[in-house]
Amino acid sequence: MQDHTQTTLSMRSRSVVLSTCISWIIRLLTDSKYYWHLFSLVFVGEVLLCALVMRYVAYTNIDYLAYSQQATLFLPPNNIRDYSSLQGDTGPLVYPALHLYIYSLLHKRFPAASSPGVGGFVPGKSGGLEAGTAVRSDGRSSLLALQGMWAGVYLATLFAVAWIYRQAILSLEKQAAAAQKKETQSERSHQTISVGQSVLKLLFGTSPPLQPFLLFLPLSKRLHSIYVLRLFNDPLAMLALYASIVLFVKRKWYIGAIGYSTKGCAVPSL
Which domain of life is it from (predicted)? Predict the structure, then answer.
């Protein structure tokens, strides 16, 4: 009899724990009060994922190598200023001067990442890169440090996108609250509720469950490749773009316009 009672209590406690966990998960996904709690989990997961990608996935030395080759022609002793003469393995230089300045600085600061032998490098493994090349004796930073910088750009962009999402949710909450208030007034005056108001209430209620879209942000394999495995130039422009949008939302028009213009100086097609 005592064993049966203990089994029953154990099952009840498990049921309570399970229902509590499910309740918390639902709150994380639907209650905007827990928006930043959910994003914090996503952010920590992204930090770990970027570290794992840098540690276990082979680096692809294509784009950054070409940028460095073009920067080498621009820097002393070559000092070439004719754009048509700035060439790399992927072709001629097609980006504005700010792009060239940025990658020239990176080439001087991180020379290890500019070696053709870096392709396929995995930290801690023999991937065709000798230790003397990965970390130069003159104390310059290694390829891994440069990948960490791009991971930081990725995480900063992720935070900016999440902040924009949050502002969209707050805006929809205000619209839903206004629609609900208008609906209440309409009911009191026996007026007909518009179809738009009814759809808004049906879809969003008073707390738009848009934060589950945060879970889709880390799912792009190509994004992780572009940022930490290829050191592409688009991430720099995208960070400037989203930072400009954040400033525009805050009505910082002049500073936002400057940031948006800076984005165009790096990658004009974005």
Answer: Eukaryota
Q: Indicate if 112 and 1 belong to the same structural domain.
A: no
Same domain, yes or no: 113 and 22: no
102 and 137 housed in the same domain: yes
Q: Work out how many domains the chain is built from and give that number.
A: 2
pLDDT number for residue 132: 44
pLDDT of amino acid 202? 45
Tokens of residue 95, six digits: 């980006």
**DSSP code, position 230:** T
Place of tokens 């209440």: 184
Please check whether residues 22 and 112 belong to one and the same domain: no
User: What are the beta bridge partners of residue 91?
Assistant: 88
Q: Same domain for 113 and 208? A: yes
Rounded Cα distance between 38 and 212, Å, is 9
Pull the structure tokens for residue 212.
């589950």
Q: Is the dihedral of CA 30, 32, 37, 40 positive or negative?
A: positive
266: tokens are 């790096």
Q: Which two tokens stand for residue 183?
A: 């609906």
Give residue 128's pLDDT: 39
Amino acid at 113: A
pTM: predicted TM-score of the whole model, two decimal places: 0.79
> Helices 2-30 and 35-56 meet at what angle, rounded to 10?
90
Tell whether 160 and 26 lie within a shared domain: no
Domain check: are 147 and 16 in the same one?
no
Contact 123, 144 (CB under 8 A): yes
3-state secondary structure of 80: coil
- The domain of 26 spans 1-30
Alpha helix (H) ranges present in 62-142?
A: 63-74, 97-109, 131-134
Rg (CA), the chain: 26
Average confidence (pLDDT) over 113-128: 59
